[in-house]
Structure formats: structure tokens, C-alpha cells
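are you around this afternoon, could really use another pair of eyes. what follows is a protein written twice so to speak, once as letters and once as C-alpha cells for the fold. i want to understand how the C-alpha cells follow from the sequence so walk me through it. anything you notice is useful, everything is just below.
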Amino acid sequence: MGEVVALLLQYGYAAMFGLLALGMVGLPVPDELLMLAFGGLAAQGKYHFLGALSVTFLGSMTGMMLSYGIGRLAGKPALHKYGKWIRLTPARIQASEKWFGKYGPWGLLFGYFVPGLRHLCSYLAGTTALPISRYVSFASLGAALWCTTFLWIGHACGMHWDQVVVLLEPVTKRLGVITLLIVLVIAGIIALRKKWWKVR
């Protein structure tokens, strides 16, 4: 993780964009920890929060669009044959196919918060020829929600972001799932409150 932070400090927004794009394609980049670090650096005044949010969004969407394009052009057989080179094991592909088959485009929205799943959902959207307009709509909404959440957490940690990253590095997969659950609970509370006010 230290090498990644060094890249961020040296190359700034360009490094963040490139690393996230590569991470979304499936290369071994610690996406959540990367954004926590970027949010923390923004809190220290090294970067502007809105600039960091824009770059992380564009980086993640670039990677997602590349994944979708590869899935659309190469198809599912290529995913099973070459997926191992980008951490897409047969077991992971099978689990993601079930998820995508059950939730469809909504899997793109919430799959961002589950490491491994967010990479595969884009490939599967391509292999199943999901219309590009629907793909972009769900993927961009998911990217905005995911980037804002983790950048905000890093920003909220402020001067202590590096300590938080060290603590969370061993449990990064659980972190994504826990964050997703928190987001869903908050969304549910807001929906219930709106419904309650309408009844009144």
C-alpha cells in the first residue's frame, strides 16, 4: 500500500485515474483502500475533494467501460479461458453469473461494493449484450455512489487516514460488504421516512 500512496503523492490525479481504471479491469489494485487514501490526502489539503471525486469517477468508469467492451467483443468463452490472468477464477465467475442473473443491471449498481463482483458484472453485462444505455446508466450511478462513499470515509478520517488504511487493509473485502449494508440501511430509512410523511 505504501508504494500506491507514493504514486499518488508523486503523480496525483493522473495516478489515481490510471490505478482505478486498471483495478476495474481486474488487475490487483486495492481500490477501496486507494480511495480512502485519496480522501485522506484531500482532507490534508493535498487535493481538492471535488477534483478527487471527478477523477475517481472517471477512472472507475473508464475501467468499467473497458471491461464491458471486452466482454461484448470476446464473449463468455474467452472470459472462462483467460479470466485467471485478471483474478477472474471459475468459482468467482460462476458466483457472479448467479448474482447478475438474479439482479441484472441492479447488480452493477450494488456490485461495486463487493470486491471481485464489480469487475465481473461489467464483463457479464458485455457478454449478455446488455444495451449500452442501460449499462452506462446503472454503472455510472454505482460508480458515483461507490466513489463518494469511500472518498468521504477517507476525508472524514482526516489526518488519521493512514492509520485507518493499515487497520482496514486485512479486511478490505468485508469493508465493502459492510459499507454496502450501511448504504442500504440509510436508503431504507430515507424511503420509510418519505412514505411516513406522505401518510401524515
